[in-house]
Amino acid sequence: MQENRQPRNWKKSITIALAVIVAIGVAYVIGAFFVGPGRVKAEGGVISTAVLDMPSGILPATDTNGNAVTLLVKIAETTEARKAGLNNVGAKALDTTVLLYVHPKLQTSRVTYDMTGIGAPLELAVIDELGNIVAVKKVGTNTTSISVTEKHQWVLAAKEGLLGKLGIAKGSFVTPGDIRRIG
After folding, report:
1. Bridge partner list, 137
2. pTM, to two decimals
3. How many CA atoms lie less than 13 Å away from 49 in the CB half-sphere?
4. Which residue in 164, 84, 88, 89 sits closest to 124, CA to CA?
């Protein structure tokens, strides 16, 4: 008994296989485009464009024991940057982000800082015109704003516990006038 076999059409088989591979590749790229950012946001790795656009600097400081400490900070020196602050920055991104709010002169009346959408509890180190840290304030994740009533010219903001790990507390000293910009 003889079989009626037709020769395989290789050209057609290869074309179909390539079309399937291309379709899978396109689906992967589309999936990564839509799912990727959501996954980063869900894992707390989001950092706002406002913070990314702020200049970076190295801030010399002295901890409460008199030891030299160097802080890598983002500098919020414009009205827009101070208003944006750490709003909508994810918890993971806050693990390493320290923000220095810079005022052009000593603030002698209450100043309110917007805390909308912060991704983790924060602490604010309030710094007077001489560089002394005069207060450390805690900020919860549901807090929309915090008022600083102490006279100050600068405020350091970081995830709760980070400043303490770096030795920065009430009684520490920073020298924002000696900040060295990088990048």
Report:
1. 124
2. 0.74
3. 0
4. 164
Kindly give the pairing relationship between strand 56-62 and strand 173-174: antiparallel
Cα–Cα distances (Å) from 166 to 2, 73, 94, 151, in that order, read 85, 13, 14, 24
Q: Does domain 49-182 have CATH number 3.30.70.270?
A: no
Residues in the chain: 183
122 forms bridges with which residues in the sheet?
A: 139, 159
Residue type, 146: I
CA 175 to chain centre: 23
Between CA 161 and CA 123 the distance in angstroms is: 7
Give the pair of three-digit tokens for residue 162.
Answer: 């980070």
DSSP code for 64: T
Backbone phi, then psi, for 181, in 5-degree steps? Answer: -75, 145
User: Coil, strand or helix: which one is 120?
Assistant: coil
pLDDT tens per residue, range 140-166: 988 999 999 999 999 999 999 999 998
